[in-house]
Amino acid sequence: MDKYNIIKIHDLVSTNDYALSLRSSEFFHEGLVIVSDFQQKGRGQRGASWESERGKNLILSVVIESRISISKQFDISKIASLSVIDCLFKLGVDSNIKWPNDILVRSNKIAGVLVDNVISQDQVAYSVVGIGLNVNQLNFDTYNPLATSLKLELKKHFSLEQVQNYLLSSLENRIKSYRNKEVLDVKYLDVLFQKDKVSCFEANSIKFNGIIRGVTERGRLIVETGDLINNFDLKDIKMLF
Ligand code: BTN
After folding, report:
1. pLDDT exceeding 90 applies to what percent of the chain?
2. What residues does each domain of the chain span?
3. 132 CA closest ligand 1 atom index
4. Which of 131, 137, 143, 160 to mutate to test the pocket of ligand 1 (most atoms within 8 A of CB)?
5. d(CA 228, ligand 1 centre) in Å
6. Average of per-residue pLDDT across 212-238
7. Sign, CA torsion 188/194/198/201
8. Distance 141 CA to ligand 1 centre (A)
9. Which end of the chain is more exposed for a tag (fewer CB within 10 A), N or C?
10. CA dihedral defined by 198, 192, 73, 117, rounded to 10 degrees?
11. Is the dihedral of CA 105, 197, 195, 100 positive or negative?
């Protein structure tokens, strides 16, 4: 990552969609950042929406030239969520990753990550890393998990620009380390929410208790139930808490 090229658009449909719409243009290159105050249709994982009060939070998408095999695409999610963890730590907040990439403070969600990959010649050529980080918002709709923000946690107002700078530099550092072949797994597992603890899950409309033991290379959740160890795709399992 040489440098960021930051484009601010006050109001748009979704920063990820906007970045993706530029993919055949000269603007679409590593380091392109689309930032917005407000998204009309912010997208979350599993087809959910991402709601954020106008001008209160960080909403951005960063283009990364991934050039990795499709089987390694979960690495980009790990890089993105760990960079949010690093940024929050710098600001004085300890956080965890609820698989695959929800960022929680205790059990309240402070940030979400959505990665859209551009596949070319059987490779992930580019990734659009979308991050929504709650900064100064104080009121949230009832939502599961409950939401929180930096202001709710630290009882002070933050400059969005400062948080954005911290986040982008954390992301840059994580990308550099990854390209220098540093492993991400130790840190990812270290901050993985409920790892090695009994949790309640739902899969195929059946509720059961299990223990998260890790994540496969492809990003599937490894859950131990009794004598069995299974792994699950995001669409097949839900953690209940
Ligand atoms: C989730 O937790 O479900 C992921 C939420 C990701 C939200 C961000 S906000 C910036 C970017 N643009 C989008 O439309 N979504 C992501």
Report:
1. 94
2. 5-190, 198-240
3. 9
4. 131
5. 34
6. 95
7. negative
8. 16
9. C
10. 100
11. negative
State which fold the 5-190 domain adopts: BirA Bifunctional Protein; domain 2 (3.30.930)
Distance 184 CA to ligand 1 centre (A): 22
DSSP annotation of 49 reads B
Residue 177: both structure tokens together: 């380390």
CATH class in words for 198-240? mainly beta
End-to-end CA distance of the chain: 38
Is ligand 1 within 6 A of the CB of residue 153? Answer: no
Which of 43, 45, 128, 144 has most ligand 1 atoms within 8 Å of CB, for mutation? 43
84 Cβ closer than 6 Å to some ligand 1 atom: no
Q: DSSP state, 47?
A: G
Count of CB atoms situated within 10 Å of the CB of 179: 10
Q: What is the pLDDT of residues 86-132, one digit of tens each?
A: 999 999 999 999 999 999 999 999 999 999 999 999 999 999 999 99
**Sheet hosting strand 206-215, strand order edge to edge:** 228-232, 221-225, 206-215, 198-203, 238-240
189: burial class by Cβ within 10 Å (0-12, 13-18, 19+)? middle
The rounded distance, in Å, linking the Cα atoms of 53 and 89 is 24
For the entire predicted model, the pTM comes to 0.96
Which helix (H) or strand (E) segment holds residue 154: the answer is helix 150-154
Q: Is 73 a pocket residue for ligand 1 (Cβ < 6 Å)?
A: no
